[in-house]
Specification:
The protein is mostly helical. It folds into 2 domains: 345 residues, no CATH class; 36 residues, no CATH class. 67% of the residues lie in helices and 0% in strands. The protein has 21 helices and no strands. Helix 8 packs antiparallel against helix 9, helix 8 runs parallel beside helix 15 and helix 19 packs antiparallel against helix 20. Belongs to the sphingomyelin synthase family. It is found in: Membrane. This is Sphingomyelin synthase-like domain-containing protein. Keywords: Lipid metabolism, Membrane, Sphingolipid metabolism, Transferase, Transmembrane, Transmembrane helix.
Length: 427
């Protein structure tokens, strides 16, 4: 029988809700926010430090240190690749395309505008309120991971952190590949010009393969029939090409201008949130991963509250036109599926004990019969059989190897279907 989870005191949930509520005071009363936020963090820090001498799972934490550091490096590399892709999808078509291209029709945005006309104004104000943002979800996860000090969450905390960062890295890589494969017009047409300094005209690659066939349906029909570009090449404008040494191959992806930062890494640091890195939402992915971690590790009423905050964040992303509805919906189910897929990282399972229990369940009736017959030789034989089977390893490799590739394939296929549906709705 599965052992019931230990009862939760609710202290972690109250701390999380208090953190979100106190931080929201910055909009309601900056004075009280300046007083209460340092006090709250001081109290939480003192309570955590007071528990450190009584923590009993340091050996598990040390075993998880290497996976934690490896996951951190993996996540940083994924974020670097994502930053390069964010800049690239903005620069490749030039600022003129961003200014002139209309946003896609989004029924989710229409629904929210319709609700604004029907719902009571206080409720509309609540939906518009900036209650929670990306940094809140990251901090909520930090609180969850540190709650191992209070035995609120199964140790090790570094193992939970490793799973969170590893899952986020996979999600970020899939996201970068997805939005770079098809460039969606931003829901904010002015976004690119306000955030990036890139050439006004498209890259010569886009001028050859996209621009001549982008507006005339007869041209599109002809290029489909020929399956070859047929438009003649024009005169290309000479672009700024700084000396980046071995990294000069990035010039065609980043398209720097003479007025910008001369370092390629400096351009990537300034990329931040893009305008066309839409499918799927990175903010909602982080929110979904935090909610999944909280639900699995802690549960209770607070996990329901966090999922409600995720939904509030989603509707704000759509309402403020940072993303289309499909971007947020896709991010939620991708986050859920990825979190389930990376369960091999945490919590650590006592496989030997689990195997013994499973084997004991299988031979329970035979063991009881041997005990009734006072056949001690048979009892000893059955127990030796349990011990022997518990040390056998029927699998050739770790379970995640068998799941990661089909899972990634399925997620990629689903994302492509959503992209196709989005473009179809625009037609």
């Amino acid at each position: 029988m599965r052992r019931a989870a230990p009862p939760r005191s609710g202290g972690l949930g109250l701390a999380a809700i208090s953190y979100v509520a106190v931080d929201y005071l910055r909009h309601l009363s900056p004075t009280w926010h300046a007083r209460l936020q340092p006090a709250l963090w001081s109290v939480l820090a003192l309570i955590a430090v007071s528990r450190v001498p009584f923590y009993r799972h340091w050996s598990a934490e040390f075993r998880s240190a290497i996976p934690f550091l490896a996951s951190m490096v993996f996540m940083l590399l994924a974020l670097l690749f994502e930053a390069l892709s964010v800049r690239s999808v903005t620069a490749v078509l030039g600022l003129d395309w961003h200014r002139e291209t209309h946003p896609l029709p989004d029924t989710g945005q229409w629904l929210l505008l319709a609700l604004n006309e029907k719902l009571p104004q206080p409720l509309v104000n609540l939906l518009r309120a900036r209650i929670i943002g990306l940094h809140h979800f990251l901090m909520l996860f930090m609180m969850l991971a540190f709650s191992v000090l209070f035995d609120s969450v199964e140790a090790p905390g570094l193992g939970l952190g490793a799973r969170y960062m590893f899952t986020m890295a996979i999600g970020r890589l899939l996201r970068a590949v997805t939005f770079a494969s098809t460039i969606l017009p931003s829901a904010r047409p002015w976004c690119a010009a306000s955030r990036f300094s890139v050439p006004l005209h498209p890259h010569r690659w886009a001028q050859k393969y996209y621009v001549p066939y982008s507006s005339d349906f007869n041209s599109i029909r002809q290029v489909i029939n020929l399956d070859m570009p047929y438009a003649g090449g024009g005169e290309y404008v000479e672009e700024h090409r700084p000396d980046w040494g071995p990294m000069s191959f990035l010039i065609d992806f980043l398209r720097p201008t003479a007025s910008e930062e001369s370092s390629w890494f400096g351009l990537l640091k300034k990329a931040g949130g893009g305008c066309n890195d839409l499918m799927y939402s990175g903010h909602v992915l982080v929110a979904a991963l935090t909610a999944m971690a909280w639900t699995e590790a802690y549960g209770g009423f607070s996990s329901v509250a966090i999922w409600l905050l995720v939904l509030h964040s989603v509707q704000r992303e759509v309402r403020e036109r940072h993303h289309y509805s499909v971007d947020c919906i896709a991010a939620i189910y991708v986050g859920i599926l990825l979190w389930k897929m990376t369960g091999f990282l945490w919590p650590p399972k006592n496989r030997e004990r689990t195997k013994r229990l499973l084997r004991l369940e299988k031979i329970q009736s035979r063991l009881m019969q041997a005990a009734k017959d006072s056949d001690m030789a048979q009892v000893q034989k059955l127990l030796e059989e349990v011990e022997l089977h518990s040390h056998e390893s029927p699998r050739k490799g770790p379970a995640w190897v068998m799941w990661i590739f089909p899972s990634v394939t399925i997620l990629t296929a689903l994302t492509i279907v959503l992209l196709a549906f989005t473009w179809t709705s625009d037609g």
